[in-house]
Amino acid sequence: MLTAGSKQPAVIKLDYASTHREIVEACKKGDRQAQFELYRLYGKAMYNVCLRMVKNETDAEDLLQNSFVDIFTKLDSFRFQSSIGAWIKRIVINNCINFLKKRRLPLEELDVERHDHSPQPAVTPVVIGLSVEAVKSAMMELPDGYRIVFSLYMLEGYDHKEIGEILGVTEATSKSQYSRAKRKLQEILMTRKQSSNY
Amino acid sequence: MQDNLEQFVRTNREAFDDARPSLKVWADIDRALDQKKSRPFQWRKILKSAAAVLLLLLAGGLIGHQISRGTEENTAAETLARISPELAELEAHYNQQINAKFAKLANYPQRETVKADLAQIDETMEELRNEIVKAPAGMEKEIVTNLLRSYQLKVQILERVLERIRANEGDLNNPTLDETSI
């Protein structure tokens, strides 16, 4: 999958952009087997993206389904200027954001002014005994806006400028939102750790 | 500066993608894409082309059979499970849909025609299954795809017939069900 801040030389990047080129070309012609192949390659990862965005399995599956129908319908406009994976992921994420907006789960936490003016702790807390399961479930306790910014930055590999574009906020908002989200996540994890010690 | 939470997430990034969507998702995408095409529905033509594909596969299979006789101990079921582990689950999903839709036809005269057509597809599918053990490498996936398409074809036939019945029943001027030649 995609990783943030690629430092690979240009040649490899170029090669990367043409990954699965044959499959994509066949998909453009409406070849169902190739479409299934593309779904197999990216469906699972994109399902996890949806789950992190909307939290609920049924909604995540609906979004995955609609996104892939969109992907195959819009594929003609894909010109290999980015990797197919990045292109797919952007469609999925946009659909998730639109879904959240429609459900009027406003991303109000993104309105920085209204939120949380508690001072930053002087020392970054070190959470001991981390596990993937613990982090995942703690993420689900975060408010929507926090969870989304945290996911986009830490797991989907976007930088703050890109997150700003996706969410329609400034880069600075994304940054401050991210650090708040991370702090909140650390708090949740540490509270749990403490309560599980008793 | 990375703290230990960030470090942990980056190191374990892959493990965060452990959830799997149900197989229903692909089946629904597949159907939605079919509907988008919105071509006139001509399943007899599809049947014919399926038969042509089958003939080609049989020919290809026979050639492959001559070339390599290595893997014949594998049963068709084992081979299918190896090539496409999700096939069994998809088959169950389709069969359930097909049975439910066929049950709705119980009191209609179209039942027999549809039954015959489904049986014909079953025959084709049976041959596809038997072919899989002899298929040359590379052809196997195609056979699986054809199997899945056969299931989709069955669902489409049933949906089409049920749709017609519903349309006819809605028409009060024409209470008798007309001969359905789809």
Automatic annotation (TrEMBL), chain A:
Family matches, as CDD domains: Sigma70_r4
- Provide the GO MF annotations for this entry: DNA binding; sigma factor activity
Tell whether Zinc-finger is among the UniProt keywords: no
Sorted alphabetically, the keyword list is:
DNA-binding, Sigma factor, Transcription, Transcription regulation
Gene3D superfamilies noted in UniProt: 1.10.1740.10, Winged helix-like DNA-binding domain superfamily/Winged helix DNA-binding domain
Q: Which Pfam families match?
A: Sigma70_r2, Sigma70_r4_2
Biological process terms in GO annotation: DNA-templated transcription initiation
Family designation = Belongs to the sigma-70 factor family. ECF subfamily.
Give the protein name, as stated in the record: RNA polymerase sigma factor
From TrEMBL, chain B:
Highest taxon of the lineage = Bacteria
Q: Which residue ranges does UniProt annotate as crossing the membrane?
A: 46-64
Ranges in a coiled coil: 111-168
Q: What is this protein called?
A: Uncharacterized protein
Keywords, A to Z?
A: Coiled coil, Membrane, Transmembrane, Transmembrane helix
